[in-house]
Amino acid sequence: MHLQRVMEVALKSYGFLLGLPLSNQPSWGEVLRLTGEEIRERNDKKYAKIWCSTEEQEFCEGLQPLLFSVKNAWRNTSMHADKKYTEEEAEYIFDAVKGFMRHIAAHLDETGVFTP
Questions:
Q1: Per-domain residue ranges for the chain?
Q2: Separation between Cα atoms, residue 37 and residue 33, nearest integer Å
Q3: What is the rounded average pLDDT of the residues 43-71?
Q4: pTM here?
């Protein structure tokens, strides 16, 4: 649960990068839906929205499936009291979140400013 709270900071930052109006405590589903729509619109030539750079586009397109995986595999089940993790599973989740956070922190600050 605590790792998910850390990742919520990343979700907000990701939303800020894309210029999305997020609620004070956005749900994962809300952020993923809005970011997915924004990515599709920026990739569709009929919209006037554009990417700031190819690096930003690749970063966002690569981040989206990682967030879906975390939401579906870990967040949904960890929010229920009957879910238990073995020590090995817990270490795997910790390492995955740590790696994800290092990746996102290397390119995105808390306010959503992207650095290639």
A1: 2-107
A2: 6
A3: 88
A4: 0.78
